[in-house]
Structure formats: C-alpha cells, structure tokens
Amino acid sequence: MIKRWTVAAQTLQHALASGLALSTVWVSTQIPAAAAPQDQDEPAQDITVVLEQGQQRARFRIAVPDPDTSAAAPRTSVASLDLTTVLRQDLEASGVFSVQGPEQLSVLSLTGDRLRDAPLYQSLGNELLLESAVREEKGLLVLEGRIFQLSGGETILGKRYRGGYELSRRMAHTFADEIVRYFTGRRGVALTAIAFHSDRDGLTRGGDPRREVYLMDYDGWNQRAVTAHESMSMSPAWSPGSDAIAYVTYVENELVSIYSVDVRTGAKTPVVRSGGFNSSPAFSPDGRKIAFARTVGGGNTEIFVSHRDGSNLVRLTNANGIDTNPAWSPTGREIAFTSGRSGRPQIYVMGAEGTDLRRATFTGDYNDGAEWSPDGARIVHSSRRSSGTSFDLALTDLTTNETRLLTAGVAGSHESPSFSPDGRRIAYQTTRSSRTGTDTQIYVVELAGGGHRQLTRQGHNWAPDWSGYLE
Amino acid sequence: MNRKWIALASTWIAALLLVVGCSGGKQPEPAPIVEEPEPVVAPVVVKPPPAPPVMDDEKPLWDEDVEAFNDATRDPSHALYGLIGDVYFEFDKYELKPEARERLAKNARFMREHPRKVFRLEGHCDERGTNEYNLALGERRANAARSYLLSLGVPAAQMRTISYGEERPTCMTHAESCWSQNRRAAFYLASELG
C-alpha cells in the first residue's frame, strides 16, 4: 500500500510537470434532494442516427476498475465506489470512450500491480486504464484519478479533487469532463443541466392543469423545481451564461407573460408582461436580448425582440400567418423561427434585424421547434409524419436545405429537440415509452449513434432545453 | 362564506349602479328593489331584486354562480344548455366554419343582452401539433371568435382571450372523435364589468 502511494505521488508530480495542474473542487451551492437514479441505458437498435457518412464514432477503450477500498471507512468506501460508477457512466455517455468496469474485468486475474496488470487489461482490448483512489481528509472526500497508457505505462493525466461527501457526483463529473477535454480538445458536458417543464405536481388548487419549470443534471439526477407559481409555467430557455432561465407563465391569468428566474437565487423577474400573449422566449448568444412570439392585432403572433429586461421592444416579422418559436444562431446574427405564412408551419431563417428572410425546411408539411447546432451549420427540429399524428426529430442542413429524419420508424412522437453544448447529443420529449400515446418523457440520444437514455419518469415532462457549459 | 356574500353584494351593487347609470339605455334591466340592510352586525348585504324569469323562483344563474353557469351551459340536460356555446375548428385551421358563425351569432345575442358580463374566450388545439405552435394557433382561434363577435356588435370590453394550446384538452381519447372537440374556442363567463 505504501509503495503504491509513492508511485501515485510520483505520477501526480508527473502530471503537474506536464502542465496538468491539480484541481480542487470547492463547491458551495445548495444541493437539493437528489432524485432517484434515472439513467438506465436502453438498447440502441431502434434508432437511425446517421450523421457523419454513416460512421459511428470510434471510441477510446478504457478500463475503469473499482478503487481499492480495503483500508477505507465504510462511508468513504461507499462514496468511492459510487463516484467511480458515475465516472464510468459519464465516460460512456460522452460518446468518446468505451468503458470496461468490474464486471468485464472480473475475468482477469489482476495482481494490483499496474505494470504487471497492463497486458491483462490490454488482452480485453483496452488502451487506457483509469485508476481512482478516494480517501477522507478532514471530513472531506478526496479523489485522485490517473489515466495510464497501457502500452507505454505512462501517466497521461492526473487530477485531485476535494469536496464534501454531497459533492461526490460533481467531483466525478468534473473529472470526467476534464478527461473528455484531454482526449478531444473539447470539454465534456457532465456538468451541464437540462431545463424542462413538468406536470408532476398535479393540479392547481383550482383544479386546473399545472406546469412548473424544472432542472436536472445532464444524466437525469437531481431533478428540482425552479418555479412554484402553481400555474402553467412552460417553455424554459437558458441564458447563455446558464445563470438564468426565461419561461412562459400563466401566473398573471389572462396575460400570458415571460418571466426570468435566477438559477442560483430562485428570484423571479417579469420580463415581458405587456400585450396579451407572449411565448417561446429565447436568449441571444450574448445574453443581452430575448426573442419571443407575441400577439399583435387579430391574434396573429409575430416575432419580437427586446432587451433582456423587456425594454426596447422591436417587431421583426410581419406576415399574415403565425410566426413563433424563434431560435438564435450561435453567432447571434440570425434567427430561425416557425411561420405559417405558406399555409403550413415551416422553418425560416432571417437576419437578427428581420431582414434577409429565407425558408429553411421544404421536406414535410409541418416543421417546428428549430434549434441550431453549436457550429451553426444545421438545425434540429420536429417534423410531422404524413400520418399527421406524430413527429420525428429531423436535422436540416442550412446550406443544402436537405432534411434527414433521426427517428424514422421509431414508434411514438418525438418533439422539441435541444443540442448539448458540445453538439454531440440531443435532448427531446417523446412518447416512445408510452402505452397510451400521451406519456411524454425526456430522453437523450447521441447523434453519432448510440442508445436513447430516459431521463424523466415522474409525471409528464416536456420542452427540454440544454444549458451551456456551467462555470 | 363571507367572501361569497361580499361578492354577491358587490354584484348587486354593481347591477344597481348600472341601472341608475343607464336609465336611458335601450334594454334597461328590471329595476332592483333594494331593501335596507338589517341594522345588525356586518356584512352589509344588499338583498337581490326579483329574478328575471329564467327559471321559476330562482335567481338567474349567471348572476349567482359563474362556475355553475359555465357548467350548466355545457350540460345537455340543463335548461341553460346552449345559451352560450363553444365553436370548433378544422385541423390546423383557425378560420370560422359556417356552423361556428351560427353559434357565435347566438353567443353575441346573449352577450349583448347582458352587457356587463365579461367572457373569457379560450383557444384550444388538439394534440397533433407541436406544443409551441399550438399555443400560437390557440391564440389565433380565440381571436378569430373575438373578431367575429366584434363585427356582430359585442363590445371589446366584454371579451378577454387566452390560448391554452394543447395543454387543456376536454376529451382525452386519441382519435378524431376527441380531437374535433378539442379544437375549439371555448366560452366561459368570467366576471362582471366593474
């Protein structure tokens, strides 16, 4: 044991020397009651996700054995095993790694000596080994994680994290994101969050349908309400800094207005409460403006933009048909939205000042819910099937206007897609697991091919919006 | 209980004011007979006048209980059924069909006859569109009904519109038999003009 720690210290120094500073996690945000684990994988055979010339992304193969807990106190032992499980799930969910855990590794006669064990790990096809060591120090949990290249035996990444026991998932997420960054140049999304709205709180006191805006971690954990208006509060939209969420609310009775909630403090501020009907808010990428749909005379909705506080209201569209559901391009120079001006809802793109209008979708007679890919080249949206009763997720290339269905043949209706900030996966609402056809839940699918993971199970859940990177 | 009395009282006070204020109007309501309140402890209750002859020996429901009125107009077995009614739309459409115009003409008559009654016009959709687009479509449907009522002489002050999109279906089966009932502009008596 002593010998092992000496080696560990050296490898950590090695990591330091190669410019990988040891990180410390001190997080003091309020941690709401954790939800039940909701991250079961599902078989992936029923999806047609073909993005990059039909190629599924090749993955790094990494072994992640359980840490040695023989000398640990019971609660440290439990925490370290949990933390390592989260690490495995994060790495597998990243789409970058193919992970082997204790189950697959149990066929090996491991000695505990890494150099001797390396060929054994390799015999199962692994290229990398992630060793985690978790201990308690002054009441805090300390995670030390190292990644070894099995062929050369070299440590290529070493990190240390420290925090309260309640932060163990967060420590694992932080480490997983760093590992993904090391191997792809782009940070993982294990620390991001998904906003949505839910009817899980039942009815209002007056017996009317109730919707509240909720938040969950990217893996479905930690589901918690961020509104409690006891009204219908819907269609959450993250601010680019992920510090606020705009949403539509019926809390002012006949005036459908847009509010904003500060994610940290829970403070709610009315943003747009004039006119009669305001919906579908979307923050501009610089966080200074909000685009939304708003009724003008005769009940026709048009796209408007205002400053973030609701001032400086400017109308962008003017058509005798419904215009709604705006989405800013990543540069903020363009806005995609849905318009019924051709008779059927189709997605259009215009400049952020309302000029240079062009139609984006030509396949299918009902397209709505555009969201831009982080690179701005494509939009993901809902596209109604010819049966007229359900929707597919679809990707439309904004250069060629070619539309590709992502869920062709998958039973159920799939709507309201939202990209993860790394562009690798999509959260969406779907009735795919519903016997009655109405049980709407939030799922995540990896674009490069992979399983659909169900994130919500309680009540009905709609309109997922993926946060940016959380700082 | 107290609140209900106060509401009732204010309703009648409002009715009284209306009659006083509009004595030269076209369709004066029957003059209410106002008795002095009992000189006992609060609340101050203005006793209602004799009811218009809608239902024997009862006060008109629309003055009494908004909820009960809204239920009654939707209950085929009730005497008030159809006094005011909802209108229905084609799939993905917000244009008024001929039968919708007929229905709205009847609604307009009742609304003009009761000029202090404010109605909430709710736009609804079936479940087959997207939630977001349906919110806008419901708004359009409620406003299509409102515009037609305006053209029939119903004052704007008597109408408020709201869209619930597909969030509040009235019928839950996943078939056209239900969808056609859900694609509607629903009329609800909401309040009294202040």
List the helices and strands and how they pair.
The complex is a heterodimer of chains A (471) and B (194).
Chain A (H helix, E strand, L loop, with lengths): L1 H16 L42 E4 L10 H20 L3 E4 L1 H4 L8 H10 L4 E10 L2 E10 L5 E9 L4 H17 L8 E6 L13 E6 L6 E2 L7 E6 L5 E9 L2 E8 L5 E5 L5 E6 L5 E7 L5 E7 L6 E2 L7 E6 L5 E6 L6 E6 L6 E2 L7 E6 L5 E7 L6 E7 L5 E3 L8 E6 L5 E6 L10 E6 L5 E3 L6 E6 L5
Parallel strand pairs in A: 1-2, 1-3
Antiparallel strand pairs in A: 3-4, 4-5, 6-7, 6-29, 7-8, 9-10, 10-11, 11-12, 13-14, 14-15, 15-16, 17-18, 18-19, 19-20, 21-22, 22-23, 23-24, 25-26, 26-27, 27-28
Helix pairs in contact in A: 2-5
Chain B lengths: L1 H20 L39 H4 L1 H7 L14 E2 L9 H16 L3 E8 L6 H21 L7 E7 L10 H7 L1 E9 L2
Parallel strand pairs in B: 2-3
Antiparallel strand pairs in B: 1-4, 2-4
What would your notes on this structure say?
The complex is a heterodimer of chains A (471) and B (194). Chain A is 14% helix and 36% strand. With 471 residues, chain A is mainly beta. Chain A folds into 2 domains: 2-30 and 64-184, TolB, N-terminal domain (Rossmann fold); 193-466, TolB, C-terminal domain (Neuraminidase, 6 Propeller), CATH 2.120.10. Chain A has a 5-stranded mixed beta sheet with strand order 2-1-3-4-5, sandwiched between helices. A 4-stranded antiparallel beta sheet of chain A has the order 8-7-6-29, with no helix packed on it. In chain A, a hairpin with a 2-residue loop joins strand 10 and strand 11. The longest helix of chain A is centred in the N-terminal third of the chain and has 20 residues, at 74-93. The two termini of chain A are 37 Å apart. Residues 1-55 of chain A have low confidence and may be disordered. Chain B is an alpha+beta fold. Chain B is 39% helix and 13% strand. A 4-stranded mixed beta sheet of chain B has the order 1-4-2-3. The two termini of chain B are 22 Å apart. In chain B, 34% of the residues are buried.
